[in-house]
Amino acid sequence: MERIIIMILFAVLLLSFIIRLGVFRMNGKGTGGLPSVNGMMFRAGKMTMVASWMLLMLHINIRDISVVDNASPVRYAAIALLSAGVLLNILSSINLGFSFRMGLPAEDTVLKTGGLYGFSRNPMLLSLFLVSMASGLYTMSPPVWVLTAVTIFIHHRIIVSEEEFLSGRFGEVWDAYSKNVRRYL
User: Fold this and answer.
1) Confidence check: pLDDT of 23 > 90
2) How many CA atoms lie within 13 A of 73 on its CB side?
3) Single pTM value for the model
4) 32 pairs with which residues across the strands?
5) Secondary structure letter of residue 171 according to DSSP
6) Three-state secondary structure call for residue 122
7) Residue 102: strand, helix, or coil
8) Dihedral sign, CA of 118, 124, 129, 135?
9) How much is the pLDDT for 29?
């Protein structure tokens, strides 16, 4: 049953990505932006994130990669974390709307400060961190934990760079927002 739940959650996450891209294309919008960090670092962050997720799929479908016996409560906590991550990703992408970019927007945009963005400045990336951490917790595999740590480290660097950009673009509005709303939680 756990395997089916995890597969469904990842299918929902993938489907939400596909729908988001399709909606953008249908409305003549792009999702690409200017890189906020070195291109190699940006791609490495995405690759390590996806690799941690793929190792979870390997673990539940082909071969157990755990180094310790993973007790049921830990696995259930991982599934809860995964569920929260998928839900947060969907809700934050809805809340962000057409302002979503992978990188820095070249065009003028509006600073989103309402909804989930009133509680976290980065709910979408936080959601992906939760999914990666759930992969590590469920598999109890050191390689997955290393990939997750690298993912979070690189994406934190991306976030800091993007926040510098937002401070320059929105000035005092950004400064007030960033003083009242935490970066993650």
Assistant:
1) no
2) 0
3) 0.92
4) 102
5) T
6) coil
7) strand
8) positive
9) 75
